[in-house]
Amino acid sequence: MRKPENIEWLYLDFDGFFASVMQQVYPKLRGKPVGVVPFAGTDRTVVIACSKEAKARGCKNIMAVRDAKQICPSILLVPQEPDLYRRAHNALLAEINTVIPISAIKSIDELTCWLDKRQSENPHELARVIKDRLAKYVGPHITCSIGFAANRQLAKIACKMDKPNGVTIWTPDMVPEVLFGLPFDDIPGIGDRMARRLHMAGIHDMEKLMKMPAKHMRKIWRSVNGERLWYALHGYEFQAQETERGMFGHGRVLPPEERDLPSAKNIARLLLRKAARRLRRAEYYASSLILWLAIDGGSAGRHIRLPYVNDDKAILDALDLAWTEATARLGRVKVYRVHVTLLDITLASKRQLDLFVSDDKDRKRWEAVTGASDHLNMKYGKTIVSMGEWKPPKGGHVGAKISFTRIPSAEDFL
Ligand SMILES: [Mg+2]
């Protein structure tokens, strides 16, 4: 366990996601109180999400339609369109991934990113770049709130402090005092049942809870989770224990002697093959590739669309294209960090149903070749067959080294 001296994570949460996607897509809903409902034409259901205008009038998510209409007679009820939310989610993630690699997708409208040293030095600017990019390339009616802190738990709490469209930065010196005034409700990890238990123990506010020794929290929780929460809320960073969802990515900080573009490209290819291997092992196909580079004075990145694929040939070809586009005007720059991500994934079993896949003979052949080489590499426990040159960088393993959110499995070290 480590106590970071600066912020290391951002947590991003889209504001009233379903409702704002509707407002982005249907101009007549903009600026109006909107409630998204499961089906049209009945009052015997609930509002599953409401717009900020509806929230301002007192409506809440998961509220009976009857109650919502009473509080806000002008509310516009619209039936949900899950496919639209999925597409918006993919588009938004792709844009964010070109600014900063996403470390974990927490839900359809929440995600976290790890910050490298340069990113953590100017969080205001990073938040502005993300927000500008989303507004420009997806739409200005889908806004997000961003929290920055030493760990993800704190960043998540910070993120909810200034909604909608806010930015909240909690540097380590502000913790835990900044939590003192918050209700237990605002703390993920303190549910209703635990709040009751705390009140029974005579602890009625966060200040008192935070001033207790960590061991006491363990006692009240009757598990080590209480103690873990204490450390998280005091700004400590744990080894991440969760698995990412919805994407397969790898990143690496480059050693000083490999910061030129050709070396960085070689490493990008290695990282991508690792990611593709994990994608296949999980029996997924991807239809997007994101390349992201930290370079002198900023970042460069590209988002490439693919048909649903999982073979090395298709994926490496896409990387070549992304690389060419991203670096075309760069000249001689230093590359400090490279990150590749495969996303917009779909299960192999579902892919056949997708209408816009046209499986040509070539694709099938490359899938067979890739499958055979995976099999050999698994069998011999190392990389003996690969597409193109396999030249691991200095410093050892390619994939397993920077894994912010994932528990690596043995195969990642091949
Ligand atoms: Mg949200």
TrEMBL record:
GO cellular component term of the entry, any: cytosol
Enzyme class: transferase
InterPro entries: DNA/RNA_pol_sf, DNA_pol_Y-fam_little_finger, DNA_polymerase-Y, PolY_HhH_motif, Rev_trsase/Diguanyl_cyclase, UmuC
Keywords of the record: DNA-directed DNA polymerase, Nucleotidyltransferase, Plasmid, Transferase
Transferase as UniProt keyword: yes
One GO molecular-function entry: damaged DNA binding
Any matching Pfam family: IMS_C
Reported cofactor(s): Mg(2+)
Catalysed reaction, written as an equation: DNA(n) + a 2'-deoxyribonucleoside 5'-triphosphate = DNA(n+1) + diphosphate
Sequence ranges assigned to domain UmuC in this UniProt record: 9-191
EC number(s) per entry: 2.7.7.7
CDD domains: PolY (cd00424)
Keyword set includes Nucleotidyltransferase: yes
One annotated GO biological process: SOS response
Quaternary structure annotation from Swiss-Prot or TrEMBL: Monomer.
Family according to the record: Belongs to the DNA polymerase type-Y family.
Cited function: Poorly processive, error-prone DNA polymerase involved in untargeted mutagenesis. Copies undamaged DNA at stalled replication forks, which arise in vivo from mismatched or misaligned primer ends. These misaligned primers can be extended by PolIV. Exhibits no 3'-5' exonuclease (proofreading) activity. May be involved in translesional synthesis, in conjunction with the beta clamp from PolIII.
PANTHER family: DNA POLYMERASE KAPPA, DNA REPAIR POLYMERASE UMUC / TRANSFERASE FAMILY MEMBER
Protein name: DNA-directed DNA polymerase
